Amino acid sequence: MDETPVAIQIKGIRDSLLVTLGGGAWPDLETALVKSIDDRPAFFQGARLVLDVAGQVLHVTELSALRDVLSERGISLWAVLSESPVTEQTAQNLGLATRLSKPGRPEVREAGDEMPGDAALWVQQTVRSGQKIAYKGNLVVLGDVNPGAEILAGGSVVVWGRLRGVVHAGAQGDEKAVVCALELSPTQLRIAGEIAISPARKGKPQPEIARLKDGRLEAEPWQA
Amino acid sequence: MTAKVVTVTSGKGGVGKTTAVANLAVALASRGQKVVCIDGDIGLRNLDVVLGLENRIVYDLVDVVEGRCRVRQAMIRDKRLPELHLIPAAQTRDKTAVSPSDMVRLCDELRPELDWVLIDSPAGIERGFKNAIAAADRVIVMTNPEVSAVRDADRVVGLLEAEEKGPAALVINRVNPAMIRRGEMLSVDDVIDLLAIDLIGIVPEDDGVIVASNRGQPLALDVRSKAGQAFQNIARRLLGEQVPFMDLDSPSLLQRLLGRK
What dotted CATH number matches B4-257? Predict the structure, then answer.
């Protein structure tokens, strides 16, 4: 009898199946997973799946191929849990959830150790409608943030481009966080617990910085 | 001769994907290209109607995928152009009947003997969209110069980038130059500014599209139609020609010759 050396654990959680994969090379894991599904097709038919891949680093081709293979078997993959930032970003780009949090909580990575105060995530792309970037430190976007996109940071946010989506700086309560953009026109601007809507602007856009002053959100032109 | 597979998608419904696929297919076929177009909108099929071929459907895409017929049997030859064929969608099923890998297999079977496979994507970003883009070599994103359409197009471009489908090409459809001049409609530049992908076509608003659709006679066959000409230009750009964008503001040559403004 073939002993598969790859560990796959399956358990039911709420309305989904949680499949936890052990270590090993991704192709072997994928083959083993598909085999366990094909061994019991009726059990998996129609299931919603959360996949925990631990430290696996997965790119778009691998994750979207897996999603298609699962979908052909009537399985809907809706979340991928992982320890790798690359895999998390890939999952987010494909519209998959990366946490099993209750609805309403912003998706910010939990504090393990204290992050150094000046750590920042560098995002070099235009963030399009429906995309979400979340980071517990500071966030720098080299590109635009289009309407319908969301960026969430525990620290401050700098957008070297047009900020036209939803931005939440100081998402874990830091009222000193700021939001800077070459063009500050977010659909909603949030710092810590305060929310504001951009007023209609006239004239040529100029670089601005928004901060919380005495509990109110204020934007002013950037003076070095 | 290996066909290029081009999918036309949009996110938003009603922006003109089916009209575009019908007209591009006709324009390419009229230039001697061998074309098959596939209607990906299972359950809400329209490409057959717009091409005037709905009475000729015997087998459809789902019959092919489920093995009830060979591909050739589902291919309906166009009334006017012998090098143009249509594989219609099924009307009595839904999008779960076909999977992305089914589409890849089908296109691989079609590629060797054709120049172009054009796929009409349904609206949305779910299964039908995923099926339609699975086999695409190139994706054309269609939009209207209108905020909700552009918002949806941006979402689609983001999804295409995430799936590493290569750079999408943009067609802005239903452009109304008079409304743009009055500041009531987004300009072409406004749209390109947000979507930031290469522009491959601008098609003017044209009542003739509705008439053509009802009659099953795509406008690309009508030399007097500006919209038809715009689709012909897009076909030429797909074939690699450098074609300058039409000046939509000026009256047509014919009108100018007849002394009308």
Answer: 3.40.50.300
